[in-house]
Design a protein that fits this description.
mainly alpha, binds fe (ii) ion, Hypothetical protein af1432, 68% helix, rod-shaped
Length: 276
Protein backbone atom coordinates (compact mmCIF):
# COMPACT_ATOMS: atom_id res chain seq x y z
CA UNK A 1 0.00 0.00 0.00
CA UNK A 2 1.10 3.55 -0.60
CA UNK A 3 1.41 6.05 2.20
CA UNK A 4 1.46 8.98 -0.12
CA UNK A 5 -0.94 8.86 -3.07
CA UNK A 6 0.17 12.25 -4.49
CA UNK A 7 2.90 10.67 -6.61
CA UNK A 8 0.76 7.80 -8.00
CA UNK A 9 0.05 7.32 -11.66
CA UNK A 10 -3.60 7.06 -12.71
CA UNK A 11 -3.28 3.32 -13.27
CA UNK A 12 -1.78 2.85 -9.81
CA UNK A 13 -4.51 5.01 -8.30
CA UNK A 14 -7.27 2.99 -9.98
CA UNK A 15 -5.65 -0.24 -8.77
CA UNK A 16 -5.50 1.23 -5.27
CA UNK A 17 -9.17 2.21 -5.36
CA UNK A 18 -10.19 -1.26 -6.65
CA UNK A 19 -8.19 -2.89 -3.92
CA UNK A 20 -9.82 -0.88 -1.11
CA UNK A 21 -13.27 -1.27 -2.59
CA UNK A 22 -12.89 -5.05 -2.64
CA UNK A 23 -11.53 -4.97 0.91
CA UNK A 24 -14.47 -2.90 2.15
CA UNK A 25 -16.92 -5.27 0.42
CA UNK A 26 -15.25 -8.24 2.12
CA UNK A 27 -15.38 -6.46 5.46
CA UNK A 28 -19.03 -5.54 4.98
CA UNK A 29 -19.81 -9.22 4.26
CA UNK A 30 -17.91 -10.27 7.38
CA UNK A 31 -19.82 -7.74 9.47
CA UNK A 32 -23.08 -9.00 8.05
CA UNK A 33 -22.09 -12.56 8.92
CA UNK A 34 -21.09 -11.54 12.45
CA UNK A 35 -24.35 -9.61 12.87
CA UNK A 36 -26.36 -12.59 11.67
CA UNK A 37 -24.42 -14.87 14.04
CA UNK A 38 -25.04 -12.52 16.94
CA UNK A 39 -28.72 -12.29 16.12
CA UNK A 40 -28.92 -16.09 15.95
CA UNK A 41 -27.12 -16.46 19.28
CA UNK A 42 -29.34 -13.81 20.86
CA UNK A 43 -32.41 -15.70 19.65
CA UNK A 44 -31.02 -18.98 20.99
CA UNK A 45 -30.17 -17.40 24.34
CA UNK A 46 -33.65 -15.90 24.48
CA UNK A 47 -35.14 -19.32 23.80
CA UNK A 48 -32.91 -20.98 26.42
CA UNK A 49 -33.82 -18.34 28.96
CA UNK A 50 -37.52 -18.81 28.30
CA UNK A 51 -37.05 -22.58 28.56
CA UNK A 52 -35.14 -22.26 31.85
CA UNK A 53 -37.80 -19.95 33.26
CA UNK A 54 -40.47 -22.40 32.28
CA UNK A 55 -38.51 -25.28 33.90
CA UNK A 56 -38.11 -23.18 37.06
CA UNK A 57 -41.85 -22.48 37.09
CA UNK A 58 -42.62 -26.18 36.59
CA UNK A 59 -40.21 -27.13 39.37
CA UNK A 60 -41.65 -24.54 41.71
CA UNK A 61 -45.19 -25.72 40.98
CA UNK A 62 -44.11 -29.33 41.54
CA UNK A 63 -42.36 -28.38 44.80
CA UNK A 64 -45.43 -26.53 46.10
CA UNK A 65 -47.60 -29.51 45.17
CA UNK A 66 -45.30 -31.99 46.93
CA UNK A 67 -45.07 -29.68 49.96
CA UNK A 68 -48.86 -29.37 50.11
CA UNK A 69 -49.26 -33.13 49.79
CA UNK A 70 -46.65 -33.73 52.48
CA UNK A 71 -48.51 -31.42 54.86
CA UNK A 72 -51.80 -33.17 54.05
CA UNK A 73 -50.17 -36.59 54.55
CA UNK A 74 -48.71 -35.48 57.88
CA UNK A 75 -52.15 -34.29 59.01
CA UNK A 76 -53.68 -37.54 57.85
CA UNK A 77 -51.00 -39.51 59.68
CA UNK A 78 -51.56 -37.56 62.92
CA UNK A 79 -55.33 -38.08 62.61
CA UNK A 80 -54.83 -41.80 61.94
CA UNK A 81 -52.46 -42.14 64.86
CA UNK A 82 -54.96 -40.32 67.08
CA UNK A 83 -57.76 -42.64 65.93
CA UNK A 84 -55.59 -45.71 66.60
CA UNK A 85 -54.70 -44.41 70.06
CA UNK A 86 -58.37 -43.76 70.81
CA UNK A 87 -59.29 -47.29 69.73
CA UNK A 88 -57.12 -48.62 72.58
CA UNK A 89 -58.70 -46.32 75.13
CA UNK A 90 -62.16 -47.34 73.97
CA UNK A 91 -61.34 -50.93 75.04
CA UNK A 92 -59.60 -49.96 78.26
CA UNK A 93 -61.78 -47.41 80.07
CA UNK A 94 -59.43 -47.28 83.07
CA UNK A 95 -56.82 -45.54 81.00
CA UNK A 96 -59.10 -42.92 79.42
CA UNK A 97 -57.11 -39.81 78.53
CA UNK A 98 -53.85 -41.58 79.42
CA UNK A 99 -52.30 -41.57 75.92
CA UNK A 100 -53.24 -37.93 75.34
CA UNK A 101 -51.68 -36.84 78.64
CA UNK A 102 -48.59 -38.99 78.03
CA UNK A 103 -48.19 -37.42 74.57
CA UNK A 104 -48.46 -33.87 75.98
CA UNK A 105 -45.97 -34.49 78.78
CA UNK A 106 -43.58 -36.40 76.49
CA UNK A 107 -43.47 -33.52 73.98
CA UNK A 108 -42.80 -31.03 76.80
CA UNK A 109 -40.09 -33.31 78.22
CA UNK A 110 -38.36 -33.87 74.85
CA UNK A 111 -38.62 -30.14 74.13
CA UNK A 112 -36.81 -29.49 77.42
CA UNK A 113 -34.14 -32.00 76.36
CA UNK A 114 -33.54 -29.86 73.27
CA UNK A 115 -35.17 -32.08 70.65
CA UNK A 116 -35.96 -30.38 67.35
CA UNK A 117 -39.23 -30.24 65.41
CA UNK A 118 -38.93 -33.47 63.42
CA UNK A 119 -37.85 -35.50 66.46
CA UNK A 120 -40.64 -33.95 68.55
CA UNK A 121 -43.13 -35.01 65.91
CA UNK A 122 -41.84 -38.60 66.15
CA UNK A 123 -42.01 -38.37 69.96
CA UNK A 124 -45.67 -37.37 69.69
CA UNK A 125 -46.42 -40.41 67.47
CA UNK A 126 -44.48 -42.72 69.77
CA UNK A 127 -46.22 -41.43 72.89
CA UNK A 128 -49.68 -41.63 71.34
CA UNK A 129 -49.04 -45.17 70.14
CA UNK A 130 -47.01 -46.56 73.04
CA UNK A 131 -49.74 -49.01 74.09
CA UNK A 132 -51.09 -49.76 70.60
CA UNK A 133 -50.01 -53.40 71.01
CA UNK A 134 -52.78 -53.81 73.62
CA UNK A 135 -54.95 -54.46 70.56
CA UNK A 136 -53.49 -57.98 70.76
CA UNK A 137 -54.23 -58.45 74.48
CA UNK A 138 -57.57 -60.14 75.38
CA UNK A 139 -60.27 -57.95 76.99
CA UNK A 140 -60.40 -60.18 80.07
CA UNK A 141 -56.79 -59.28 80.86
CA UNK A 142 -56.90 -55.69 79.65
CA UNK A 143 -59.99 -54.85 81.73
CA UNK A 144 -59.14 -56.91 84.79
CA UNK A 145 -59.21 -54.49 87.71
CA UNK A 146 -57.15 -56.60 90.14
CA UNK A 147 -53.72 -58.17 89.95
CA UNK A 148 -52.84 -60.28 86.91
CA UNK A 149 -51.77 -63.92 87.27
CA UNK A 150 -48.21 -64.67 86.06
CA UNK A 151 -49.64 -66.12 82.80
CA UNK A 152 -51.84 -63.08 82.25
CA UNK A 153 -48.89 -60.81 82.97
CA UNK A 154 -46.81 -62.63 80.31
CA UNK A 155 -49.55 -61.94 77.77
CA UNK A 156 -49.84 -58.30 78.87
CA UNK A 157 -46.08 -57.85 78.44
CA UNK A 158 -46.40 -58.77 74.79
CA UNK A 159 -48.10 -55.43 74.04
CA UNK A 160 -44.63 -53.90 73.53
CA UNK A 161 -43.54 -56.35 70.82
CA UNK A 162 -47.00 -56.52 69.23
CA UNK A 163 -47.01 -52.69 69.05
CA UNK A 164 -43.58 -52.64 67.42
CA UNK A 165 -44.74 -55.22 64.86
CA UNK A 166 -47.79 -53.11 63.99
CA UNK A 167 -45.66 -49.99 63.45
CA UNK A 168 -43.08 -51.94 61.44
CA UNK A 169 -45.58 -52.13 58.61
CA UNK A 170 -46.03 -48.35 58.33
CA UNK A 171 -42.89 -46.61 57.02
CA UNK A 172 -43.76 -43.21 58.49
CA UNK A 173 -44.18 -44.74 61.96
CA UNK A 174 -41.01 -46.85 62.04
CA UNK A 175 -39.00 -44.07 63.80
CA UNK A 176 -41.56 -44.16 66.64
CA UNK A 177 -40.92 -47.86 67.36
CA UNK A 178 -38.30 -47.33 70.15
CA UNK A 179 -40.96 -45.53 72.25
CA UNK A 180 -43.35 -48.44 71.82
CA UNK A 181 -40.89 -51.31 72.19
CA UNK A 182 -38.80 -50.05 75.14
CA UNK A 183 -41.16 -48.10 77.41
CA UNK A 184 -41.31 -50.95 79.94
CA UNK A 185 -37.55 -51.55 80.12
CA UNK A 186 -35.94 -50.59 83.45
CA UNK A 187 -32.57 -48.94 84.11
CA UNK A 188 -31.56 -51.90 86.34
CA UNK A 189 -32.32 -54.42 83.59
CA UNK A 190 -35.40 -55.92 85.27
CA UNK A 191 -37.88 -54.62 82.72
CA UNK A 192 -39.36 -56.12 79.55
CA UNK A 193 -39.46 -57.21 76.72
CA UNK A 194 -35.66 -57.58 76.42
CA UNK A 195 -34.35 -56.88 79.95
CA UNK A 196 -31.97 -54.21 78.62
CA UNK A 197 -30.05 -52.16 81.22
CA UNK A 198 -28.74 -48.59 81.46
CA UNK A 199 -27.90 -46.92 78.17
CA UNK A 200 -28.56 -50.15 76.28
CA UNK A 201 -32.16 -48.94 76.48
CA UNK A 202 -32.78 -46.39 73.69
CA UNK A 203 -33.39 -42.88 75.08
CA UNK A 204 -36.96 -42.96 73.72
CA UNK A 205 -37.79 -45.87 76.04
CA UNK A 206 -36.07 -44.27 79.05
CA UNK A 207 -38.04 -41.03 78.52
CA UNK A 208 -41.40 -42.70 78.05
CA UNK A 209 -40.87 -45.03 81.03
CA UNK A 210 -40.79 -41.96 83.30
CA UNK A 211 -43.75 -40.18 81.69
CA UNK A 212 -45.90 -43.32 81.44
CA UNK A 213 -45.33 -44.25 85.10
CA UNK A 214 -45.91 -40.66 86.22
CA UNK A 215 -49.29 -40.53 84.49
CA UNK A 216 -50.27 -44.00 85.72
CA UNK A 217 -49.55 -42.92 89.32
CA UNK A 218 -51.47 -39.64 89.05
CA UNK A 219 -54.56 -40.98 87.26
CA UNK A 220 -57.64 -42.60 88.74
CA UNK A 221 -57.79 -46.42 88.81
CA UNK A 222 -60.64 -48.47 90.23
CA UNK A 223 -58.34 -50.28 92.65
CA UNK A 224 -56.55 -47.28 94.13
CA UNK A 225 -56.65 -43.54 94.67
CA UNK A 226 -54.46 -41.39 92.41
CA UNK A 227 -51.27 -39.89 93.83
CA UNK A 228 -50.78 -36.14 93.80
CA UNK A 229 -48.30 -34.94 91.18
CA UNK A 230 -45.90 -34.00 93.93
CA UNK A 231 -46.02 -37.51 95.44
CA UNK A 232 -45.61 -39.07 92.00
CA UNK A 233 -42.56 -36.88 91.27
CA UNK A 234 -41.10 -37.93 94.65
CA UNK A 235 -41.65 -41.58 93.70
CA UNK A 236 -39.94 -41.05 90.31
CA UNK A 237 -37.03 -39.45 92.12
CA UNK A 238 -36.84 -42.38 94.56
CA UNK A 239 -36.61 -44.81 91.62
CA UNK A 240 -33.78 -42.95 89.83
CA UNK A 241 -31.01 -45.46 89.13
CA UNK A 242 -33.23 -48.51 89.67
CA UNK A 243 -36.30 -48.13 87.47
CA UNK A 244 -35.36 -44.89 85.72
CA UNK A 245 -32.36 -43.25 84.04
CA UNK A 246 -30.66 -41.26 86.86
CA UNK A 247 -29.62 -38.52 84.41
CA UNK A 248 -33.13 -38.06 83.02
CA UNK A 249 -34.93 -37.98 86.39
CA UNK A 250 -33.55 -34.55 87.45
CA UNK A 251 -34.66 -33.18 84.06
CA UNK A 252 -38.17 -34.53 84.66
CA UNK A 253 -38.21 -33.11 88.20
CA UNK A 254 -37.13 -29.76 86.71
CA UNK A 255 -39.95 -30.00 84.17
CA UNK A 256 -42.43 -30.44 87.02
CA UNK A 257 -40.89 -27.74 89.25
CA UNK A 258 -40.94 -25.23 86.40
CA UNK A 259 -44.69 -25.83 86.04
CA UNK A 260 -44.25 -27.23 82.55
CA UNK A 261 -46.20 -30.45 83.23
CA UNK A 262 -49.24 -28.45 84.37
CA UNK A 263 -48.76 -26.22 81.35
CA UNK A 264 -48.52 -29.18 78.95
CA UNK A 265 -51.78 -30.55 80.31
CA UNK A 266 -53.65 -27.32 79.61
CA UNK A 267 -55.63 -27.66 76.42
CA UNK A 268 -54.82 -24.40 74.71
CA UNK A 269 -51.09 -24.89 75.21
CA UNK A 270 -51.40 -28.41 73.92
CA UNK A 271 -53.02 -27.22 70.70
CA UNK A 272 -49.93 -25.14 70.20
CA UNK A 273 -47.71 -28.12 70.99
CA UNK A 274 -49.72 -30.35 68.71
CA UNK A 275 -49.12 -27.94 65.85
CA UNK A 276 -45.54 -29.23 65.62
FE1 LIG B 1 -47.35 -49.95 78.11
Amino acid sequence: MFDDIAGLSRAELEREVRYWRSQSLLLARDFADVRADLARHAAEIGQLRAQLLSYAEDLNREYQLVRQRTIELERLLVATVGALANSIEARDPYTRGHTDRVARITIAFCDRLGWKRERLSIARMGALLHDIGKIGVPDAILRKPGRLTPEEYELMKQHTTIGAQILQGIDALVPAIPFVLYHHERWDGKGYPHGLAGEEIPIEGRILAIVDTFDAMTSVRVYREPLSMEAAVAEIRRCAGTQFDPDLVPEFVGLYEDGLIHRALQEEVTRELYAI
